[in-house]
Amino acid sequence: MFAAADPMRVETVKIITAEAEHRFLVEVADDPEELGYGLMHREHLDDDKGMLFDFGRLYTPRMYMKNTLISLDMLFIDPDGTIQMIARNTVPGSLRQISPPTPVLAVLEVNAGLTAALDIQAGDRVSHALFSTEVSAASE
Question: What is the mean pLDDT of each run of 10 residues along the chain (140 residues)?
Fold first, then answer.
């Protein structure tokens, strides 16, 4: 399931699509060591698990799959929780950089194929305390 050494905080995220809501229990990577290590050396990831990379600011990440043994889907997420881009079925061990077209606040990694199987698309929303999804009535 999760790495035993120096465990990360584990929280729930919800992905809201046009048709359904999907819950994942995720490890939150939010310090430089965790952000750099990610899901490297994992041999398995349950379908209801994942990792949320919290960059703490708008950032254009250059993700790669070095030392990652399992294929993943990467969801690049804006500050309001909108999925900007999905990199599907990433190649284990690849050094090819995967980046969104514009800066994001976070990346969610889940098992490869899940976003297609669950019909998760760019434009869908991720609900988690990290993302500000409420629109103030004063700004209308």
Answer: 64 97 97 93 96 97 96 98 98 96 98 98 97 50
Q: Where are the beta strands (DSSP E) in the chain?
A: 9-16, 21-29, 49-59, 72-77, 83-87, 104-111, 125-127
Residue 70 falls in which region: left (phi positive, over 0), alpha (psi -120 to 50) or beta: beta
**Can you say how many angstroms the Cα of residue 127 is from the centroid of all Cα atoms in its chain?**
12
Q: Compute the distance between CA of residue 49 and CA of residue 97 in angstroms, rounded to an integer.
A: 23
- Determine the topology of domain 9-132 in CATH: Jelly Rolls (2.60.120)
Round to whole Å and give the CA distance between 55 and 79.
11
Amino acid at 84: Q
Cα 94 to Cα 96: distance, rounded to the nearest angstrom? 5
Residues 6+ apart with CB under 8 A from 15: 21, 22, 24, 75, 83, 108, 118, 120, 124, 125, 126, 127
Domain boundaries, the chain: 9-132
